[in-house]
Write a structure and sequence with these properties.
alpha/beta, 319 residues, eight-stranded mixed β-sheet, 14 helices
Length: 319
């Protein structure tokens, strides 16, 4: 397993990789890094695959463009197309977790010639909403339910990343704790923020690191985000409505490549994206497995590496 830099079109990407064989890209989410896939990189390499986990645009050692609009879904998918080519390949399987899952789903939607199979963890495929952009709809749903505001809407504030940058170690610790499967239900985040509060203020100050995260691993995240900051990662969220505008050409489009989906039973994301799980088979026409891991939370590949590794390798062997 090695870390190196690779130059793609206009972006210098840091990648974690190991193994030889068919290429598998592993795309992380928020607030994570390529190192979140260590267990999968090792297992996939051992199973005969070339596993590559990049720090995504705006994260870790990868370049951080300044403009908000440079973090659109077209840029994120383009980065992965460029990475496949820079690695000397023409096709691959793409796997995404959290924010990486929508990127993976869109890789499959936009470039089926490159991404021959797709796996999503935690966040199901969500078809484009024909009635309008997502953030006004999110706000309306939260208001009708009397649940405050969904954190993704709060993240639209151009300065909101500073709540994480004020104390990076604490912000990361709280975030990992609030979405972990070992955290008691009443202390987990629901994703909905009460008036006058924010994502971090709603999480208890005595939050601890999850059982799977060592102090040394936490320190790796702290060091990376102390260097890169949170503006780039949060700019992904600030493109939600622009992404909707840019993807009208995908309206009604289904994913026909082999696919799989896995989610933790106690993943808080299910509070606001879980409704899309029931209809996955209608949009993923070759859905080969859909798994709910009992007791698991959001950080699947690190909480439950053995189950995730077995599922991914089984899926890859089926192709």
């Amino acid at each position: 397993m090695q870390t190196r830099f690779i130059q793609t079109d206009g972006l210098n990407q840091q990648i974690l990789e190991a193994g030889e064989g068919p290429l598998v890209l592993l795309i992380h989410g928020f607030p994570e890094l390529g190192i979140s896939w260590r267990a999968q990189v090792e297992a996939l390499a051992g199973a005969g695959y070339h596993a590559v986990a990049p720090d995504m645009r705006g994260y870790g050692g990868t370049d951080r463009p300044e403009r908000v609009e440079d973090y659109s879904i077209l840029h994120l998918v383009g980065d992965m197309v460029d990475l496949v080519r820079a690695l000397g390949e023409e096709t691959c399987t793409v796997v995404g977790h959290d924010w990486g899952a929508p990127v993976a789903w869109h890789c499959a939607l936009m470039r089926p010639d490159v991404f021959k199979a797709v796996a999503g963890l935690s966040v199901p495929f969500q078809p484009r909403r024909a009635k309008g952009p997502p953030t006004p709809a999110m706000s309306a749903i939260a208001r009708r339910a009397g649940r405050g505001e969904l954190y993704m809407v709060q993240f639209q504030d151009p300065e909101h990343h500073r709540i994480f940058e004020a104390d990076i170690a604490t912000g990361l610790r709280k975030g990992f704790y609030a979405y972990d499967g070992s955290t008691p239900t009443e202390r987990q985040s629901t994703g909905f923020i009460a008036p006058g509060q924010n994502f971090l203020s709603e999480i208890s100050d005595d939050a601890t690191l999850p059982p799977w995260m060592s102090e040394a691993h936490h320190a790796e995240y702290v060091a990376a985000f102390s260097n890169s900051g949170f503006k780039g990662p949060m700019d992904w969220y600030r493109n939600l409505d622009l992404n909707w505008a840019l993807t009208a050409f995908l309206q009604g489009q289904k994913i026909h490549q082999p696919s799989m989906f896995m989610v933790g039973e106690r993943d808080p994301v299910r509070h606001y994206a879980g409704q899309h799980e029931a209809g996955l088979k209608d949009w993923l026409t070759d859905l080969r497995s859909q798994t709910v891991l009992p007791g698991a939370g959001h950080w699947l590949q690190q909480e439950r590496p053995d189950e995730v590794n077995a599922a991914l390798i089984g899926f890859l062997k089926s192709l």
